[in-house]
Each structure stands twice: as C-alpha cells, then as structure tokens.
Amino acid sequence: MSTEPNVKQAIPFFGVENIQASLRFYVDGIGFEMTHKWIHEGKLRWCSLRLGEASLMLQEFWTEGPHQGRPDGILGLGVSICFVCEDALKIYHEVKTRGLDPSRPFVGNGMWVTSLTDPDGYRIDFESFTDVPEDTVYSDQNQ
C-alpha cells in the first residue's frame, strides 16, 4: 500500500461572465500566467492560470446552446481565495503599478493582508506572515 498522498492540489475554479475581462485582471493586472487553455469554435472557453506555485481556473458561462446556464445573482458573492505568499506588501505595490486598486494592507491573524475584487465579484487576498502588531495598517510613506 502506497504512503504517498493521492491528492496533490486544490485549484479554485471560477465561472466568469467575460473571460477576456478576467484575463485582463488576472494576467495583466496581477501577473498570472496562462498555462493551459481550451478553445472551442474559435473562442477561449476555459483556461488555467498560475502565479508562483498557486493556480486557478476560469471558464466563461455559455450564453447559448446545451451548456448555457449562468446562475442568477452576483457570481463571486461570499467567495474569497487566500494566496499565502512571501511578501504581500510586494504584491500590493506590483498590482498598483499595473493599474489595479488593492485594499490598503493591514495585519490580521499575524499576516499582512491586501485584497482585490475581480470583475465577477470574487475576492482575492494576498497574505504573508509578519511579526508586526495585529491591526497595524500599512502606510506607503513607511517603505
């Protein structure tokens, strides 16, 4: 009997309204790289993205045919994905230079936390461990 773990990774899979808008956010804005894609009838329908050792997948909802079925309401309501990284403050500065508007970093649960909301309402958190006191709010002047 093998003692090696069978499950290797959990990958968030987001259904999106407009995959091109999502790619602008994740690839151009955050810096993810597209590693796999599925093109059907000349249209990008699904892709896998990677940033460092983390991944996520996007698939645009079909608006016609047998696979149509976007759910009602705000897609990302109540969903947040936490990416643990070496330096969340570095991510904060990088995404700002790419035109995104991340939340001001703060220390919560012993981690720097900065967040963004993607075009479909999914919340993306970048977090890194720190010894800075709880509830500290980052100031750009203290770089």
Provide a brief overview of the structure.
With 143 residues, the protein is α/β, with parallel strands linked by helices.
Tell me the series of helices and strands, N- to C-terminal. EHEEEEHEEE
Low-confidence runs of at least 5 consecutive residues: none
Using the coordinates above, name the CATH class: Alpha Beta
Overall pLDDT: 92
How many structural domains in the coordinates? Answer: 1
Characterize the largest beta sheet: strand count, sense, and whether it forms a barrel: 4 strands, mixed
How far apart lie the N and C ends? 53 Å
Give a verbal description of the structure.
- The protein is α/β, with parallel strands linked by helices and 143 residues long.
- The protein has a single domain (13-62, 75-137), classed as 2,3-Dihydroxybiphenyl 1,2-Dioxygenase, domain 1, CATH 3.10.180.10.
- The chain contains two helices and eight strands.
- A four-stranded mixed beta sheet has the order 1-4-3-2, with helices on one face.
- The longest helix has 12 residues, at 19-30.
